Amino acid sequence: MARSSTLPSPMACDQEDAKALHSGTSGGEPKLFPSIKEEQQRRMFLCTLVMPVMNLYVKGLAKGKGLYFMFSKSETETPGGLVARSALTSLYKSDHFKNRPYNPYYISTSPNEAIYCTDTLQSIYTQMLCGLYEREQVNRVGMVFASGLLRVIRFLQLNWQQLTHDIRTGSLNPKLTDTSIRQYMTQILAQRDASSECFFGINLNPMCKPSEVSYTIMPNMAYFEFLPHEPNSMRLTHSKLVDLVDVKVGEEYELVITTYTGLYRYQVGDILRVTRFHNSAPQFQFIRRKNMVLGIDTDKTDETELQAAVENASQLLREFNTSVVEYTSYADTTTIPGHYVIYWELLGKNSANSPSDKVLEQCCLTMEESLNSVYRRCRVADKSIGPLEIRIVKNETFEQLMDYAISRGTSMNQYKVPRCVSSKPIVDLLDSRVLSKHFSPSLPHWTSELRL
């Protein structure tokens, strides 16, 4: 399970120990973590294990090539003179990657020149162009996170005409200004007959439903301990830590790691649930990020509950052939009382049959009905929370949100949409693209009766 945007990212540099940059995509600035060169071998081991597992379920993966989108970020330097890179940048610039042996599972159409280009748009364009040029050999497409792949698909929708023009004419988009890319692509297009942390688990059943995904912990990646999840506890109590062999099926734990690179009992922030055992190895399902919580008063709404509420409310949009493309949330305390603000980017197939204001107001109420009893008590009895608000934003708003994160040092490889935001620049960006605002028209159901 390579959740490299939420785990510390110690990846080795080419010739020396260095610092690795945490991507900071879960709501914070990038952090520095120690790195040693030897860590690469463990990571490469896990990477090479993934495709053979996939081949058990999807035959023929060793044939053809893969259109794998890979991106590097600019390097920085610590005050002491050490190089600081993101985890995947360190991997791509390492000797392990540059001198990797032949592996039929990992033949990629993406050239190193594009991977090493730190201009994200030029890198995407070049990798997409190479993949399309060798389209008859491509039999698989991939990226670290699905959210990034969705953006790449959107990029193709917006730029397919220029891409096909380049292939048809053998010319190159003048917006590609990177010298190494232009030199490489000029040769390719002229040839008409050319063909943050630690990783910690693998999905041994890759064809299962997304809701059923479980990961088997790889004990050689780090030393893993598990803190029984107590929602109201923010303090790590070592006496409560559970070893890998002692976890129990059905229980939830916060992951705690001690790495070869020097992190000691680092609280990752991922909440995992033990689902089953593979032989003697426990398998875990990712439940949510710890502390990704909306709250106004005594209420606490975590990522899982918010996701369920959005899914329930979005059912009302189906008859209009409309869906929620992306969403995030914000606890607005500038009003009295404060209230939840949910930002929705919608995709509709028929603009003439878009959902009305009344329908969107009902979506607000449906979300409130889906939230926990503490929230509903605060709304109904305490009146300490105001009506939930949905703000509809313009198309491509969440792409701009990604662009902002990338400009702040996040790698596109590791970006995920934050489900709860508080940063003023991010809130300002979202508010600048609001098309309409809608509030819950009535109070959600709540009763103070106790049932035995």
From TrEMBL:
Boundaries of every GH3 C-terminal domain copy: 305-424
| Region (Disordered), start-end ranges | 1-33
Q: Where is the GH3 middle domain?
A: 215-289
Keywords from UniProt, A to Z, are: Ligase
Q: Name one Pfam family in it.
A: GH3_M
Q: Which family does it belong to?
A: Belongs to the IAA-amido conjugating enzyme family.
State the protein's name.
Indole-3-acetic acid-amido synthetase
Quote the InterPro entries the UniProt record gives: GH3, GH3_C, GH3_M
Specify the domain of life of the species encoding this protein: Eukaryota
Query: Matching PANTHER family, A to Z?
Result: GH3 DOMAIN-CONTAINING PROTEIN (PTHR31901), INDOLE-3-ACETIC ACID-AMIDO SYNTHETASE GH3.1-RELATED (PTHR31901:SF96)
